[in-house]
What does this fold into?
Amino acid sequence: MTEEKQTVLLGLTLRELTEFVEDVGQPSYRGRQLYEALYRQRLGSAEQISTLPQEFRQSLRQRGLSLGVPTIEKKFVSSDGTVRYLIGFGDGQSVETVWMPEGDDGEAGDGSEAGSEIEKAAGRSWDRTTICVSSQVGCAVDCQFCLTALLGVKRNLTAGEIVGQVCAVLKDQNFSPPENRVNIVFMGMGEPFLNYDNFMRAVRLLVEGVGIPESRMTVSTAGIVPRIYDLGAEPVRPKLAISLNAPNDELRSRLMPINRKWNLEKLVAAARDFPLRNREKLTFEYVLLDEVNDSAQSARELGELIRGVRAKVNLIALNPGPGIAFQTPAENRVAQFQKILIAAGVPTFVRRPRGRDIYAACGQLKRTVELAAS
Ligand code: SAH
It folds into this structure.
């Protein structure tokens, strides 16, 4: 492969694709054909776009243009059905994307379509299928319990690379929205709010191009406060989840250094100010670390901290990994923590670990390619 820079079409909007075809002397409707081919049909190469005349397909290649669909480099299948994909891009970088056929229960109670379906009919698991998408190669935020942090941040993903993960996985799973319902969580590698513009462009393309409703998408942030306000002002936006992980500044600054920049007062104020839609709730994620942030006292403090916010809490028992200096709490400690919050009036759910055996669970994404034989 030559190193010459290829121009990539995935990530362009309908308007941009239309301008592009007009620029190269094609009729404007070819913009729509390219758009459909990229986002609806999710074709892998220009040669496959049978709606386009042969010479146009060839001229795309001659101009050094590629569709830019990322490639699935590796695929690990968990005993629970979760699939972890290693997805590679044109420059040799890669990220992970996780397919969860039955969700992880994190959807419960947030007022979303997927959430109310869980409450109505626990059996309809096909409605809970979730893709967990990455927003950066690695991560700069340095949370002490997260394996992705150990990679540092290599670069931001483009909008096309974010949408491309979804397209590649849908194609591999032979899954086609809107007929097949799928939820998207921006909870993979990276901090979406440190790559805000590309992330939001990807959201709009997933809604308009791929056909996934915004009400089925959730973005999680470690607490980049100014971007929480930006998200609130977006006409089309996912639901918001905030990784809280500690009930006071002393502890949170230790676990999540980002707290020194935006402390809990600022973060919870942004959560209170966030303009929620009808029936919508915020989610607070809280990773439970044995004997660190999982005491009854911490649970009470957390209940106080978020009192009055229209929110639910998702508890995540630590998913362990090499180089992580914390332990997973026993189940009874998780249950006690949940009980105290519920008693304080906070809807609280426990996120099921998905794909722990293949390093696919929350906080475990670090491009592990060597797995012990199972
Ligand atoms: N950077 C964003 C998006 C990633 S979401 C954010 O931090 O919100 C990943 C979620 O997994 C976060 O809620 C994070 O707190 C949680 N997490 C990180 N490491 C974990 C671990 N080892 N076990 C369980 N959850 C973890």
Remarks:
- The first strand starts at residue 7 and ends at 8.
